Amino acid sequence: MDCPAEQQKENLDLIAYRKKAEEDSSLNPGVQFFEFLRNLTADGFFTSEIGIKYLGYIGNDYLAEFPGCPPVPET
Amino acid sequence: MLQIMRKGRVFDVCIIGSGAAGGAAAKVLTEGGLDVVMLEAGPPLYPEKDYKEHVWPYELAHRGAGIGGEGFEDFGKTEFMAPNGAWTIEGEPYTSAPGTNFRWFRSRIVGGRTNHWGRIALRFAEVDFRARSSDGMGDDWPITYQDLAPYYDKVESYVGVFGTLEGIPSAPDGIFQPPPKPRCTEVLVKKACNRLGILCIPSRLTIITQPLNGRPACHYCDQCGRGCISASNFSSSQVLIPPAMETGRLTLITNAMAREILVGADGKASAVSYVDKETRTERQARPNSSTSSPARTKNTSAGWAED
Fold first, then answer.
1. Which residue in A45, B89, B104, B105 has its CB near the most CB atoms, within 10 A?
2. Does the beta carbon of B138 lie under 8 angstroms from any beta carbon of chain A?
3. Residue A64 in contact with partner chain B when CB distance is under 8 A
4. pLDDT, position B214
5. Torsion of CA B161, B165, B167, B168, to 10 degrees
6. ipTM exceeds 0.90
């Protein structure tokens, strides 16, 4: 916490982007912690009213009829 | 020493468990004129209050993830899931043999696991009744697919199953309502399967796409696991037990954990001993012993694997 901002970011990059996690197992607890925090943050946002709106989620509602998928282009 | 309470009333039949089998037995037997007592280990269920259908995460405590996020570990513990179904249930011990980790999703509530199950409703195929003679594993059944087929017809007509007629020997056709139109992912999977020559057909689920016996068709909210307030998917609690109740011949005792089927000197079941979980007293439900039929106590609970 007492590190300068630059070093703080450096440490966070190590556990957030996991580039060296495979070769350096001492990073594992940090990687896991950051993953947990990142998941909770995403869950927290995307289960909020604005988060659901942002996703464009259209489920959890009454539909009189289910229209199905629009035509899928030939590939 | 527990005090044994004897219930005064005598019934024709005692059913243990209120799930798919218990509910079906209760409906058929009460409509046939028998007085039935049903023992359910869990509490009563009030779908309109207990089901979290159409509720948004931000309307619930912990965004519905359960206290301390326990729903992350056990999806039965989320606040969305239809009540009292989970891998671990408080006050309901579960053990597995040393060195094994067999897990069993359990339910303690009226309707049992029919409140939570994914509604997949496939018929057994002819080959499933002849396991020993076809591949040497298990045993042949004493009945055949043809013996059971008329009952599949009856059940499917009543509970409502969607599907398509395909003529596949390992998945016999049934009485189906039309399936919903495929979603985009399903369209893509189907296209890929066609290209690879893999048979890909709509699922067969007890979700109604057309009104049936006063139940409205599915409204496509995609939240079946929460329980369906409109009973457009099948549960024993909403589709089998209400008509049995309407006959006036079903006595449903909740929070009643069956302990033992008591057998009389004549070898016939004389009563079911159960523990009333609320008062912690032992009681008995007594089928009518004056009838001349063999033991009429039915243990229908799918929870047979628990002991």
1. B89
2. no
3. yes
4. 95
5. -50
6. no
Task: Tell me which DSSP letter residue A50 carries.
Answer: H
**Which residue does chain B place closest to A36, by CA atoms?**
B72
Give the model confidence (pLDDT) of B260-307 as tens digits: 999 989 998 889 999 999 999 999 988 765 443 444 555 554 433 332
CA of A36 vs chain B CAs: smallest distance (Å) = 11
Is the CB of residue B259 less than 8 Å from the CB of residue B273? yes
Listed in order, strand segments (DSSP E) in chain B are 4-11, 13-16, 36-39, 85-86, 106-107, 250-253, 256-263, 269-276, 281-287, 297-299
Write phi, then psi, for B195 (nearest 5 degrees). -65, -35
> Strand B36-39 and strand B250-253: pairing?
parallel
Strands B85-86 and B4-11, by their bridges, are: unpaired
Q: Give me the amino acid identity at B51.
A: Y
Residues 6 or more apart from A7 whose CB is under 8 A from it? Answer: none
For residue B91, the model assigns a pLDDT of: 83
Alpha carbon separation from B269 to B12, B35, B96, B265, B286 (Å, rounded): 12, 16, 30, 9, 9
Q: Which residues of A touch B218 (CB under 8 A)?
A: 66
Q: Is the distance from CB of B135 to CB of B116 less than 8 angstroms?
A: no
Per-residue CA distances from A60 to A16, B1, B227, B240 (Å): 33, 52, 13, 26
- B63 to chain A, any CB pair closer than 8 A? The answer is yes
**Contact: A61, B221; criterion CB under 8 Å:** yes
For residues B119 and B234, the answer to whether their CB atoms sit within 8 Å is: yes
Between CA B258 and CA B263 the distance in angstroms is 14
Q: Long-range contacts for A48-54 (Cβ within 8 Å, ≥24 apart)?
A: A48/B57, A48/B58, A49/B56, A49/B58, A52/B56, A52/B57, A52/B58
User: What is this structure's pTM?
Assistant: 0.84
Report yes or no: B190 at the A interface, CB cutoff 8 Å. no
Within chain B, residue ranges assigned H as helices are 20-31, 47-50, 131-135, 145-159, 184-196, 241-246
SS (H, E, C) B236-276: HHHHHHHHHHHCCCEEEECCEEEEEEEECCCCCEEEEEEEE
Using a CB–CB cutoff of 8 Å, tell me whether B4 touches chain A.
no
Residues of B in contact with A62 (CB under 8 A): 54, 219, 221
Which amino acid makes up residue B301? S
Per-residue pLDDT at B286: 82
